[in-house]
Amino acid sequence: MPSIDLLLIGFGAVHRAFSHILLYKAEALARRYDLTLRVVGVADSSGARFRAEGFDLATLLAHKTAGEGVSTFPGGQPAPGALALAQIASYDILCEASPVNLRDGDPGLSCARAGLRRGKGVVLANKAPLVLDFRGLHELAQRHGAGLAFSATVCGGLPVINVGRRDLIAAEIHLIEGIFNSTSNYILSRMTAGETYAAALAEAQRRGIAERDPSLDVEGWDAANKLVILANTLLHFPATLDAVSVQGITALSRDDLLAAQRRGQVIKLLARAEQVDDGYRLSVTPQPVPAGSFWAGVSDWQMGIAFHTDIYEEIYLKIDERGPTATAAAMLRDLIHLAGAA
Ligand SMILES: NC(=O)c1ccc[n+]([C@@H]2O[C@H](COP(=O)([O-])OP(=O)(O)OC[C@H]3O[C@@H](n4cnc5c(N)ncnc54)[C@H](OP(=O)(O)O)[C@@H]3O)[C@@H](O)[C@H]2O)c1
Prior knowledge:
Blueprint: E1 3-9, H1 13-33, E2 36-44, E3 47-50, H2 57-65, E4 77-79, H3 82-88, E5 93-96, H4 108-117, E6 121-124, H5 128-144, E7 148-149, H6 160-167, E8 173-179, H7 182-192, H8 197-206, H9 215-218, H10 221-234, E9 244-246, H11 254-262, E10 265-276, E11 279-290, E12 302-309, E13 314-320, H12 325-338
């Protein structure tokens, strides 16, 4: 049975959920896909470790849950950090789930580049590398014959990228609309119900859904990042973040939400890519939508997307994602595809 050796860059909410899935699904992966997945390298903010025979994930998870960093894990050999692992270690696929860093993309961007330059598969949950260097990463992947997959970066488990790429063949997409950020969506839903902004944000953080820097969620940048990835991937429009007009939810009060309710509306943080003469106009803004509409029904932990096309008419998708497991599952589906096993 072939085994695929993985590096996990970041060992936070997503990669811990991913590790739980690997434990839970080990037998099914072997039976259905003849596949064994081994984690041979792992990095967090404390450092990195490598073990050619693979780590015992249950012990590694227990170590991390006890509040310890990877650098103090007793098994394997220490490595100077994530980038050194990506550059030197022996592995097949690099999985990247470190925090979004829109300044220089690191450690995610450097690790992704290092993996691709070595012809390794790269699976991203972290949006920053794509937002900062979408084209460069794809050129590297092509030059080195490496696989690059990132279906987890837009709406976690919701198969937005895959549906758009695989199932909208030959379509002209006139408009993409979406509720892409569940933290801000949850905050708006809970504030309407009478909860405070701070309590709702704390719950999103407790569940491992909020970004490490939650200003990315509530100020609209997380949704804008996803819009940039969709524009480049599905609309063939080489947008960068500065092309997106961004407004978050921080200026909204409960009175604003209740006033909208009295008008028969709900306020949602909507991302839009609308076709115009010279490409697409991209925006993320709070918008009133009619109560009873598809968007009003995307509430609490849900995210959704609508594709308005010429030949497939309108396609609506939504997901109820209450923690990081579905995002971790999206990384698993990407790597199984990269491994050519499905
Ligand atoms: N959570 C979700 O539902 C979700 C959904 C879609 C996409 N994503 C994306 O997935 C990524 C990870 O999210 P998360 O929720 O797992 O974040 P998280 O819980 O904050 O975990 C981030 C991990 O990265 C580690 N890290 C920080 N700096 C590092 C460095 N220089 N080198 C190596 N590791 C480093 C952290 O180390 P410590 O443990 O030592 O702090 C932590 O283990 C983010 O880019 C996020 O946007 C998350």
